[in-house]
Design a protein that fits this description.
The protein contains 18 helices and 18 strands. The chain is of the alpha/beta class and 498 residues long. The strands form 5 sheets. The protein has a 6-stranded mixed β-barrel with strand order 1-5-2-4-3-6. Strands 12-15-17-13 form a 4-stranded antiparallel sheet.
């Protein structure tokens, strides 16, 4: 049964859910309860599935109130006539139940779940059950293939008639902003490397958050193709596109729970690589007791799965596993990581050499995987591109193409922040730098939303320090935020001295 109501814009957001509000008395007479799925149709055959809520005062009888997520992204204005229909529970719910009971799913079942997430037919609670289901019984390789394939197919795809290379980090290590160095190195050699990245989930910054310090990162697929045609590369936010849209909705659910099971991570990475048409992929996998990948056993398991999935999709993959005792680079947080990247590309005297070495190694491995050069020659070629300034020149082209200031100086990106130094309480040797503690401190400082928030490290693992030496400096956009970070730093020991 369908009925008609007049639209009313409400200046509320639901934090990712798409919600419409109906007058409580009218909803009761129509048989609609809060939490029901309803489909809205209006002029030009536009339609959307939303979640119903009810109110006695926000909307009158005959009106339907639309949260920001509806009217900001859809062409609908106050007073439009909206056709409303109640929708039954989708079959994908049964598939989620089966997975929660430890059953294996078919391609059709998995595709129904991913399609319903994309079309907003599943609630945040139902998606949470789906995300957590892999803890009950991990997905088989076939199920991971079905998930990746479904996610790629239910969104936009790059489909450019070129061979595409890419580098991706599984995350979990503070700093480590190697992608923003690798991309200009590779593109400066004439290879195509269109890089889409997610925003941070469980860390103080992602590549998209950091690149946004230098240039806009939100573009349509058409705009990205134009950028790539000009520069052979891009550094953009994948969430601004319709690439694997179900994955972005799952990320929204995962973020407040700091929940990212390994199967979900595998699928998230592979779906977006398939959608972007990647042919050659190097994966950076840091391993450490306080990182996302705590031991070699899990790393080996993930490596096998990545390579197996790559073969299924016709993609050549190499996993680079590295021991991670500490952050890579000095800066942690969007602006401070951007400063590190620029210092490397501009060959500044204060550049973090660990970030440079790791970036050069990853770029070299990608060149060899692609067949650009003989084995053992890639690192030398990549290093030459940084030393000669070719990589920085390419990065300037990318920044300009994305609407940023191509002449930006490394020392200009982190100015204006409030800061506070943390000093050693005793003499000794640094025997642990706790990545998760660093993440928590940075998030209390406001990262990644606040670009100036973060930490600058003054010590490395294994350094000898004296009582009173600087360990790290907190940065924040305001004194209020700085105090929150100081409180977090006092509670969470980030640097252990023995």
């Amino acid at each position: 049964m369908s009925f008609y109501l007049k639209s009313k814009k409400l200046d509320f957001a639901a934090g990712g859910e798409i919600v419409a509000v109906i007058n409580e008395d009218e909803a009761e007479s129509l048989g609609i309860q809060a939490g029901d799925r309803i489909e809205l149709k209006w002029s030009n055959k536009q339609k959307i599935i939303v979640w119903a809520d009810t109110s006695r005062s926000r909307v009158k009888a005959g009106q339907i109130g639309l949260f920001r997520e509806v009217w900001r992204h859809h062409n609908i204005t106050n007073g439009d006539i909206v056709e409303v229909a109640i929708i039954s529970r989708p079959p994908s719910i049964q598939a989620i139940k089966r997975k929660m009971l430890g059953k294996s799913l078919t391609y059709e079942e998995i595709h129904s779940i991913i399609s319903d997430i994309t079309e907003n037919r599943l609630s945040a609670v139902e998606i949470t059950y789906f995300v957590s289901s892999s803890f009950v019984k991990p997905y088989s390789n076939e199920e991971l293939f079905y998930l990746s394939k479904s996610m790629a197919e239910t969104g936009e795809q790059m489909n450019m008639p070129i061979r595409v290379v890419d580098k991706h980090s599984v995350g979990g290590l503070p700093g480590n902003r190697t992608t923003m160095v690798v991309v200009p190195i590779i593109a400066s050699l004439g290879l195509y490397i269109p890089k889409t990245s997610s925003r941070a989930i469980t860390s103080p910054a992602g590549t998209a958050d950091t690149m946004e310090v230098l240039a806009p990162v939100s573009f349509s697929m058409k705009e990205i193709k134009n950028i790539v045609r000009k520069t052979k590369a891009c550094l953009v936010w994948g969430g601004g596109l319709n690439i694997a849209p179900a994955d972005d909705k799952i990320i929204q659910i995962s973020r407040p729970l700091a929940l990212e099971p390994y199967d979900k991570m595998l699928v998230s990475i592979m779906a977006k690589k398939v959608a972007m048409g990647v042919d050659y992929l190097v994966i950076d996998m840091p391993i450490g007791e306080t990182t996302k990948i705590p031991n070699q056993h899990i790393a080996n398991m993930l490596e096998k799965k990545f390579i197996w999935l790559g073969k299924k999709f016709g993609m050549k993959i190499k996993v680079i596993k590295t021991l991670a005792r500490e952050p890579v680079g000095r800066g942690i947080g969007p602006a401070l990581e951007a400063r590190d990247v620029l210092r490397v590309l501009q060959q500044h005297k204060l550049r973090p050499h660990d970030l440079e070495r790791k970036s050069v190694n990853l770029a070299g491995q990608l060149l060899e995987l692609k067949g650009y050069c003989r084995k053992g020659q890639g690192k030398k070629i990549a290093h030459r591109q940084i030393q000669s300034g070719a990589a920085w020149k390419k990065m300037q082209e990318i920044i300009k193409a994305q609407g940023g200031n191509q002449n930006i100086n490394s020392e200009a990106v982190a100015t204006g922040a409030f800061h506070y130094e943390i000093h050693a309480k005793k003499s000794g040797r640094v025997n642990l730098i706790h990545d998760r503690a660093i993440n928590e401190i940075c998030m209390n400082l406001g990262a990644p939303r606040e670009k100036l928030a973060g930490i600058h490290m003054h010590v490395d693992w294994g350094n000898k320090v004296k009582k009173g030496d600087k360990l790290f400096t907190l940065y924040a956009p305001s004194n209020e935020r700085l105090q929150l970070g100081v409180a977090a730093a006092r509670k969470n020991n980030a640097v252990y001295i023995k």
